[in-house]
Design brief:
Elements lengths: L1 H17 L12 E9 L1 E10 L4 E14 L2 E14 L2 E6 L4 E6 L1 H11 L4 H14 L3 E8 L2 E8 L2 E6 L2 E9 L2 E12 L15 E7 L10
């Protein structure tokens, strides 16, 4: 069930990000965000990024509890994702295994969509991408001192600042999953070591991710 919720959340955010993939994945050059996880999954998530998100480090440590037919199941995870340009490494730090994947086609599409655009034009592209997917823009809300875009996709609610999700609330089939930023620093110096691939993890090369159709906007 946790996998379903995270898949729903990732599907929306990754599609929005795909429309921003090269010129500016985010509209902020660098930053560090700390999140708390709530609902059926509790824990923390730490994100560091540079070069407008083309370098990204995401460490998630969580425990998920699900009750089905009176039986309770608890699972603990420690997962690391590192993105360097058009390559993504995902590691299970408990099992010491992971995958490596390239997203070259998506990066090329994103570059065509964003290259040469101002922040205002990128913001309009962000809004159009969301509404084209069926999301409903509800306006803006101040969160952590930032003027965030507020939108929902079905029963899922989001607050997003310059392409960066700061708060999300996913609820489906009686199970909930929330991510809430508790700290957000922007335009900082990020140590290069943050984006080093762990040497003690065995990665399986998955090749290139299949290209997903994207509507280009001139």
């Amino acid at each position: 069930m946790k996998t379903l919720l995270i898949a729903l959340l990732s599907a929306l955010l990754s599609t929005v990000a795909m429309a921003q993939q090269q010129g500016k994945y985010f509209f902020v050059k660098s930053g560090h965000i700390e999140y708390t996880l709530g609902g059926n999954t509790t824990g923390t998530k730490s994100v560091w990024f540079d070069n407008y998100g083309m370098l990204m480090y995401t460490l998630t440590e969580s425990t998920t509890t699900v009750k089905i037919l009176g039986m309770k199941s608890t699972t603990s995870t420690k997962e690391l994702e590192i993105r360097k340009g058009n390559t993504i490494w995902k590691a299970d730090l408990l099992q010491k295994t992971g995958t490596k994947m390239t997203i070259e086609a998506q990066t090329e599409v994103g570059e065509k969509l964003t290259k040469g655009k101002t922040d205002a034009q990128l913001h309009e592209l962000e809004r159009k991408t969301l509404t084209d997917m069926g999301a409903e823009i509800e306006g803006y809300e101040t969160f952590l001192g930032k003027n965030c875009l507020k939108f929902k996709w079905g029963t899922t609610k989001f607050l997003q600042y310059k392409g960066i999700p700061l708060k999300s609330d996913v609820s489906t089939l009686g199970v909930s999953y929330t991510e809430t930023a508790t700290g957000f620093d922007t335009n900082i110096s990020v140590p290069a070591a943050k984006f080093e691939i762990p040497a003690n993890v065995k990665f399986e090369d998955m090749g290139e991710m299949m290209n997903m159709p994207t509507n280009e906007t001139n």
